[in-house]
Amino acid sequence: MAKLNLVLLFGGRSSEHSISCATAAGVLGAIDRSKYNVIPVGITKQGVFVPAADDAAKWALRKGNLATVTDEGSRIEFAMDGSREITRLDITGARSSLGQIDVVFPVLHGPFGEDGTLQGYLELLGLPYVGNGVLASAAGMDKEFTKALFESAEVPVTPHVVIHQRDWLSNPGASLDQVAKLGELPLFVKPARAGSSVGVSKVKEMAEFKAAAKLAFENDSKLVVEKGLVGREVECAVISGRGASEPRVSIAGEIVVTGRDFYDFEAKYQDEDSVDLIIPAKLTDAELNEMQGIARKAFKSLGCEGLARVDFFLTADGFFVNEINTMPGFTPLSMFPSLWQATGIAYSDLIDELIYLALNKN
């Protein structure tokens, strides 16, 4: 059987550029080379498509100096004529074909990668790709619309309000009146369209709110203020079913943070000693069944395809969905693949399954 030409696309313009590189490192290190001819393509922080090294160690997550896709002069070009050809343009001006693309595995996180923009580009190119389509990616990236769709589908969500920067600048008092309706502190202030906890603050006193809003607005033109819920942080992973089958949901995992106010960027990627990822989470059978049912409903309510991770708070009042991640971290130690490994799907087999789903989208 001939190998499939797979483009692994990573990097990008968002603040999660280096996290995308780390995800690419995980895939490069585990993908079955007997099945796939891997063509790594990086996107610089300026949005330039360039050839990238097929070297997992180069892109792996590390403390301090995070990996970055750099522009060394060569370019990658995708054919716009439906031929699926991918071409390398060297710094000398010489062109060489890298063959015809069978499937693209985009592992970009955040804006310009996970928000539907890249998915729309791949649709224009006529290329099959792993993961969610344009609508689900855009809705999943925007917390305002994610929560609206969840509420419409009767998925329980964290109590919240949305503040647009123009409204905050013109009438901050009215925005603060909205926030007051959430009740007691603490509050979490988040950019509406960012991930990996970039720009997120925990507000324990209202005197801190303006600084938190300023930080969030540095990353987006609107923010979401969520009521801080007292409970456990639990997650499960979802992949599409084959054919007409229902989406498949993993067992649950739990995040326990020590020494930090919340599960922020540093805790996720630079200070692993402050976080315990517990798999499986200690839940009753009834709790797990309920959680999996809500995750499946959340996945379907956005029209998701391929994969997602659904994050919950388990409180005295039950489960609340915090958010959905339509391109979760995908290193071998990340929660998404770890949950599937504990459920019975090995990392390399999970990659195979996601590629199968990409090539057989309904």
Folded structure, characterized:
This protein is α+β, with helices and mostly antiparallel strands and 362 residues long. The protein folds into 3 domains: 4-129, Rossmann fold, CATH 3.40.50; 139-156 and 230-359, 2-Layer Sandwich (D-amino Acid Aminotransferase, Chain A, domain 1); 160-227, ATP-grasp fold, A domain (Dna Ligase, domain 1). Helix content is 31%, strand content 27%. It contains 12 helices and 16 strands. It has helices spanning 17-30, 56-59, 117-125, 134-141, 143-152, 165-170, 172-180, 209-217, 265-269, 285-301, 335-343, 347-359; strands spanning 4-11, 36-43, 49-51, 75-78, 85-89, 95-100, 103-106, 160-164, 187-191, 201-203, 222-227, 231-239, 248-257, 275-278, 307-315, 318-325. A 5-stranded antiparallel β-sheet has the order 14-13-12-15-16. Strands 3-2-1-7 form a 4-stranded mixed β-sheet. A hairpin with an 8-residue loop joins β12 (231-239) and β13 (248-257). The longest helix is centred in the last third of the chain and has 17 residues, at 285-301. The chain is globular, with a radius of gyration of 21 Å. Mean pLDDT is 92; it is low at 262-271.
